[in-house]
């Protein structure tokens, strides 16, 4: 049997393509999401993963307290549930 460098080169090239076009962007997005969740402050308007929009009114360890309406209904969410910060 003749040894061919193509047998080794093709899987390496495929892995590099998958890494640079899929894995690396997902890692970057996950890092940005962690930074967003870590840097939330009182008064920020946020959207949760479930689509709930509210204003941050407090913190308790890994939880964020949201005011969700004018009657001051408050809910506690894990910081990991924060999807985005809403800016007007």
Structure, explained:
It is found in: Cell membrane. It is a single-pass membrane protein. With 88 residues, the protein is of the alpha+beta class. Helices cover 38% and strands 31% of the residues. It has a five-stranded antiparallel β-sheet.
Q: Which keywords apply here?
A:
88 residues, rod-shaped, alpha+beta, SH3 type barrels, 38% helix, transmembrane, 1 helix, five-stranded antiparallel beta sheet
Oligomeric state of shown chains: single chain
Q: Give the terminus-to-terminus CA distance.
A: 67 Å
Number of domains: 1
Give the beta-strand count.
Answer: 5
Write down the Rg: 21 Å
Short description:
With 88 residues, this protein is an alpha+beta fold. It has one domain (6-86): SH3 type barrels. Helix content is 38%, strand content 31%.
């Amino acid at each position: 049997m003749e040894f061919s460098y193509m047998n080794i080169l093709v899987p390496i090239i495929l892995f590099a393509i998958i890494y640079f076009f899929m894995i690396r962007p997902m890692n970057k997005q996950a890092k940005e999401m962690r930074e967003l969740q870590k840097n939330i402050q009182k008064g920020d308007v946020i959207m949760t993963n479930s689509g709930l929009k509210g204003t941050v009114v407090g913190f308790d360890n890994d939880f964020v307290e949201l005011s969700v309406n004018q009657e001051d209904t408050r809910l506690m969410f894990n910081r990991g549930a924060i999807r985005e910060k809403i800016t007007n």
